[in-house]
Amino acid sequence: MENNKLQRDSFGSKFGIIAAAAGSAIGLGNIWKFPYITGVYGGSAFIIVYLLCIAGIGLPIMLSEFLIGRRAQANAVGAFKKQAPGTPWFLTGTLGLAAAVIILSFYGVVAGWTLDYVFRAITNQFANMAPAQLGDMFGGFITSPVRPIVWQVVFMLLTLGVVLGGVKDGIEKYSKILMPFLLGIIVILNIRALTLPGASEGISFLFKPDFSKLSAAAVLSALGHAFFSLSLGMGTMITYGSYISKKENLGKTALQVTIADTVIALLAGLAIFPAVFAFGIEPSAGPGLVFITLPNVFNQMPGGYIFSILFFVLLAVAALTSSVSILEVVVAYFAEEKGVSRKAAAIWSTVAITILGAFESLTNGTVNFKLPFLKSGEILSLGFFDWMIELSDMMLPLGGLFIALFVGYKMLRKDVEDEVTNSGAFKVGYVSAFLFAVKVIAPILIAIVFFNNLFGFLK
Ligand code: PFF
């Protein structure tokens, strides 16, 4: 309560806002997941559907989150409490908070893998390993009890360190350094990959449409990934929106962040597939693309030692600016709603989330954890780790649905207009189209995805 009287921390500059929000969006989702799901679902046919999801649903929901947050000047739960007092709308924020805890728990584990691979790259451990050995190395590593947890803890401490610095002097400051660094690395990797003889086969794999692979599952995956990739549906952009100054143009900011995220995903694909095909390697689908196939590629590539270090550093940096944004959702909640100091909120949330993640990591091999309350079906054969990933795939679209409905039906049009025009400081031409997207398009499409995921989940 008292915290509300204090001046809230906020982003200090336009570039800082873009760096922080794009830093949240650009993460393991772009560099690890987007390339392989694109490969699995037919290259550019999938990309076309993904771009439609980004433009028709992702962008309007990002703007919705920004405007909910900035209008309320509050965290993900507080924003709904302030704008719809005495109603259950705040549960949208609570759901987001739960999603943040779940996502950060496994995100920290995978990000820990990337740190381990930075270490392996620096110590030249991939050299002379046959593809099967690289596979065994990865499998052995992620199923081992201690090593992945040690790296997960290191990564979570880095995340904590940034968040402890605050919004302007922590999150914004590091994003302003790390995001240009990330862009530089990815451009170098693109130049390397695209100048390899035989790179064109990888380009056509990525961009030649194969509509036969474009199943219903592909469309659903495109939408689900749009949420994950743009950090939507769990209040991250509500929280960051609350730190955006009243002078900024929210529609323009949302557009810039969306474009940055999409461009980086495409560049990641253009760094990975041309290199993979240039060496005649069959791209593996799934997590192994980055952790097994790529070390094999680096082994054969001129300068592979350096490029392998750059690649895994890129992954770790991308992961860090995203994990910071997820932790901030939780920290802002406890600091503003529960009156806990930011420092205590950050430390205790990190401890709790790290313990949950460590347990998930153990279920990859050491602990055989079955969920007692799910009766039957495939899900029982999954470890807790995979189960958490599946669960978050459902929570984000559900959160996105409520956010869209809130802006579309609960907020008044005049308030929405007031927020996107900075109280009439400039005119925007998109309000009707935006409201149509959040009232009609997004809810219908999200409902389809949500029920499909739910039935897949329970079958
Ligand atoms: N957008 C991040 C990625 O693509 O890796 C992951 C993420 C961050 C998801 C923040 C959700 C979120 F709220």
Structure description:
It contains 19 helices and no strands. By secondary structure, the chain is mainly alpha-helical. α4 runs parallel beside α11 and α4 (44-72) packs across α17 (384-410). It is globular, with a radius of gyration of 21 Å. The model is unreliable at 1-5 and 374-381 (pLDDT under 50). 4-fluoro-L-phenylalanine binds at residues 24-25, 27-30, 103, 228-229, 231, 234, 236, 322, 325-326.
Summarize the structure.
The protein is 76% helix and 0% strand.
Can you tell me the residue ranges where pLDDT is under 50 for at least 5 consecutive residues?
1-5, 374-381
- Provide the helix percentage: over 70%
Shape: globular
Q: Note the total helix count.
A: 19
Backbone structural class: mainly alpha
Order of H and E elements: HHHHHHHHHHHHHHHHHHH
Oligomer state of the chains in this structure: single chain
The end-to-end span amounts to: 45 Å
Largest sheet: none
How are the SSEs ordered, and which strands pair?
Elements: H1 2-5, H2 14-25, H3 28-40, H4 44-72, H5 76-83, H6 90-122, H7 131-143, H8 147-164, H9 167-194, H10 199-207, H11 216-229, H12 236-241, H13 250-278, H14 288-300, H15 304-337, H16 342-362, H17 384-410, H18 413-420, H19 431-458
4-fluoro-L-phenylalanine (PFF) binds next to helix 2, helix 3, helix 11 and helix 15.
Any descriptors?
about 450 residues, mainly alpha, 19 helices, disordered N terminus, binds 4-fluoro-L-phenylalanine
